[in-house]
Amino acid sequence: MNPSCRVIIEEEKMRDKIGFDEWADKYDETVKETESASEYPFAGYKKVLGTIYEKINRYPLSSVFDVGFGTGVLASALYDTGHMIYGMDFSPKMAKKAREKMPEALLFQGDFHAGLPKALKDVKFDFAVATYSIHHLDDGDKVIFINEMLSRLNENGVMYIGDVSFENREKLEACRVRSGENWDPGEFYIVYDEFKKYFPEGKTNFTALSSCAGVTEIFK
Ligand SMILES: C[S@@+](CC[C@H](N)C(=O)[O-])C[C@H]1O[C@@H](n2cnc3c(N)ncnc32)[C@H](O)[C@@H]1O
Q1: Is 132 in the pocket of ligand 1 (CB under 6 A)?
Q2: What angle do CA 201, 215, 163 make, to 5 degrees?
């Protein structure tokens, strides 16, 4: 990579991190507002997190790695029902909020562009979740990251990606037009009928849960 491109990318990441820190106090409120208005990007947020919660909760006391746990909405619900929670997030303020809800969880501050926390290199998880977080990686980097995550799951492990995502490009385009200037052109959403080709047949599944969101399952 050209060194000047690397500098620009590093500066963008730093801005993102500061942006998430600034958002931390109001994050849950913003989500509620756009969810209850059924608007992009958070229309269906509760259903997305609730669907993943139900699927994992069928397996009591499992270990779960949360990528970009934010204020810990999903992770703390799983924590409260007895699951062992690990996670990473690069925003110190988001991490502080999450730690208050999950004092015993192993939460790391770090950037997922650099992969998983090195301190967990020998730990395997039953499930991985990424809700509204890895859209910061383009398809190529997402696939690399997901494969790294899958390699760290126990046999029969599953990664759940709950996010703005679409069955096909027509649905993404319709949402982009409807959302007007709210649409974020700098995020990379899963378009499932294009994305599934990166994984073996039968190893992925997608469920649409609102006009702009769904859950992608990737089986180890
Ligand atoms: C929109 S919030 C989603 C939070 C939570 N998962 C949820 O569903 O409410 C995105 C989270 O991902 C984190 N994040 C974004 N880019 C990241 C990166 N490159 N490395 C680590 N965390 C990142 C942000 O700090 C933020 O907490």
Answers
A1: yes
A2: 125
| Count of the separate structural domains present in the chain | 1
Q: Whose CA is nearest to atom 27 of ligand 1?
A: 70
- Residue range of the domain that includes 128: 3-219
Using the atom order of ligand 1, give the atom closest to the CA of residue 73: 9
Q: How far is the CA of 91 from the centre of ligand 1 (A)?
A: 8
Burial class (CB within 10 angstroms; exposed 0-12, middle 13-18, buried 19+) of 54: exposed
**pLDDT digit string, tens, across residues 115-168:** 999 999 999 999 999 999 999 999 999 999 999 999 999 999 999 999 999 999
CA distances from 131 to 8, 78, 163 (A): 26, 14, 5
Q: Is the minimum distance from the CB of 125 to ligand 1 under 6 angstroms?
A: no
**Residue 112, domain CATH:** 3.40.50.150
More confident residue, 72 or 23: 72
- Cβ–ligand 1 distance for 94 under 6 Å, the answer yes
Is pTM beyond 0.90? Reply is yes
